[in-house]
Description:
The complex is a heterodimer.
Chain A: H1 2-28, H2 33-38, H3 46-56, H4 62-74, H5 88-121, H6 126-141, H7 144-158, H8 170-200, H9 203-210, H10 215-232, H11 235-253, H12 258-268, H13 271-299, H14 302-308
Helix pairs in contact in A: 1-4, 1-13, 5-8, 5-11, 5-13, 6-8, 7-8, 7-11, 8-10, 8-11, 9-10, 10-13, 11-12, 11-13, 12-13
Chain B: H1 5-22, H2 59-94, H3 97-111, H4 115-126, H5 130-157, H6 160-167, H7 172-208, H8 220-227, H9 236-262
Amino acid sequence: MRTLLKRLVAGLAVLYGAASLAFLSLHLIPGDPVAILLGPATTASPEVRRQISAELGFDRPLLTQYLGHLGRLASGDLGSSYQLQRPVGWLIADQLGPTVQLAVAAIVVALALALISAITTAGRHPAARALASAWELTAVSLPSYWLGVLLLTAFSFHLRLFPIIGGDGPAALVLPAVTLALPIAGVLAQVLREGLESALAQPFALTARARGLSQTAVRLRHALRHAAGSLATLAGWLVGTLLGGAVLVETVFGRPGLGALTLQAVQNRDMPVVMGVVLVSALTFVVISALVDLLYLAIDPRLRGAVVA
Amino acid sequence: MRRYWPLLVSCLVLVPFGVAAAVPELLSDASPIAIDPVNALLPPGTRHWFGTDQLGRDLFTRVVHGARPSLLIGAGATAAAVVAGGLLGLAAALGGRAADQVVMRVADVLMSLPQLLVALVVIAVLGAGTTNLVLAIAIAFTPGYARVVRAEALVVRGSGYVESAKGLGLRRSVLIVRHILPNAVGPLLVLATVGFGTALIAGSGLGFLGFGTQPPAPEWGAMLAEGRDFLETAWWLGVFPGAAITVTVIAVNVLGRAARGRFAGGKP
């Protein structure tokens, strides 16, 4: 119980830190936030500027602004977009769907590739392992935006198998999901393969073999459970990579989503939206990490006793 | 000897990239920005090895000239992140409880966010441009280095030879510079090698998004973004700049893996 409580406090600390970071960068911007809000080609009079400044609370002391900022966030209010004049919460909720779809599809593809690669090559002939190592290294080194451009050129422009820009439905999801998945699959496959190899070297694997289980059954039923533990530690990294990768992949394929929203906000220096994305991303990280901790208990029964005790 | 051949190959692969970055004129004497509309969008051939782009510029020349900005962004960001992370990590490990708490809690927050998002936030605050882009990537990568250096410094601090150096009455600064730092450097260098590959991908990615080198100057990521509009007729615009990034990163990662074998424990 105490470990769980500790995790909760650490998670809250990360959220508080992200919220403070958001506030800080909002006020670190060189120049007047009102000027950025109004855009470069503005002829607004000083009175209008003061009025806007008062409306947004920029004229109050920093500490008051900071506490107000934390209070609004705690009640779930992420503020309003400078550029689009809509609540940030709505904007993000609007764009969440396509990105979640993309991320889930990418995880499925990445896990499938990693499992196939690791189960077939772990502890096998040196040539097979060298091959696995080579593809893992290549996948890890591939910039997703280049992979996307390559797939787009080959499968959309030349073979015409998939829609070129945007579109919805499963066909439009295939190439972006593969693009986002491949570099991730490289990392997962490597970790999984190393995990499997160390599990297969342990006495329990030999015992299971001696009981008459086939080589494959030992891998699937016994070693995989051990190796899955090392995958679980990557969950936080995975969330970040998916979210960061979505910015690039959504740009390459002209898909709507959180990444496209973020990019637009950064280009327009629409800080409330940027900060909203930061907070949602931190929240996702904290929630996923907590869920993975629970999942970890399900995978590894030895930990359950440790938590109760 | 067999164990060393991937290392040898990747070093050989990196040589032309290094030459391209240092003296691009050596590999191609054409201009990377001179426009020649008559020869626009020519496919790769004997006259133009990588073809020409929409303005008739030789793509091979542009890829060669793109090496310097692309590699400099990655190297600059990595160097800045290693130095900043190294100092912060040392401060956290050796500077007392308060310093440790502040540095590590901030690192926790930054590391809970995607690196690309951290970089984008910095760009949103500072604005686009090559210098800001280097700074943005450096800030995104610093917490990782700080964490490793802190962990290494803690291990080294507790070791016997540091205790005996302390017993000899060495000054604190000498102790840190002469005894603790050199032992934390190995894993840091391994991490930095692999980190350079990641920084190159991130830098060109931000260039691809339009936040770095502005056209017409050649930079691999920005070139890919320009070529994106002509993929239907000119596949080569989407292939060669990206291949340059990928080949460099693969070679660097092979080096990093070899170095990791040399200094055990520097696992990224």
